[in-house]
Amino acid sequence: MKSYYYVYRNGHRGPEIKHPSVIAAQKESIRLAEQHPESTFEILKCVGVTRTTKAQTFWMDCEEPEELTRLAPPTQKFQYHNGNTKFNGAPF
Q1: Which residues contact 49 (CB under 8 A, 6 or more apart)?
Q2: Cα(27)–Cα(16) distance, rounded to whole angstroms?
Q3: Nearest to 49 by CA among 75, 21, 18, 92
Q4: Among 11, 14, 71, 91, which has the highest number of CB atoms less than 10 A from its own CB?
Q5: Would you kindly state where each structural domain of the chain is located, as residue ranges?
Q6: pLDDT-derived band of residue 82, with 50, 70 and 90 as boundaries?
Q7: How close are the terminal C-alpha atoms of the chain, in Å?
């Protein structure tokens, strides 16, 4: 999974648009700052996401903290519900 970036306007609701690179996020933060000179914009990097599949955290490429051990491989149920068709039916 590749990392992505958000631009956050400090003191406002959370960011919604994912930017594929830090350069794209920087360009957007500059554009927004010029429109709203009274505001501060932060560039945030998403380094991991958590899903309710047994509450595991899935780290972006090269972002897993060194002090954590590698997560167990995804369960068959997770793989099945995320498009892996090698399972005949739902074996769980």
Answers
A1: 1, 57, 58, 60
A2: 16
A3: 18
A4: 71
A5: 4-81
A6: low
A7: 26
* pLDDT surpasses 70 at 14: yes
Average pLDDT of 49-76?
68
The residue count of the chain comes to: 92
Tokens 């047994």 map to which residue?
Answer: 54
| Bridge partners, 5 (sequence order) | 19, 45
Could you identify the residue written with the tokens 């899935």?
58
* pLDDT value of residue 88: 56
The first and second tokens of residue 88, run together, are 């005949």
Confidence category of residue 80, pLDDT binned at 50, 70, 90: low
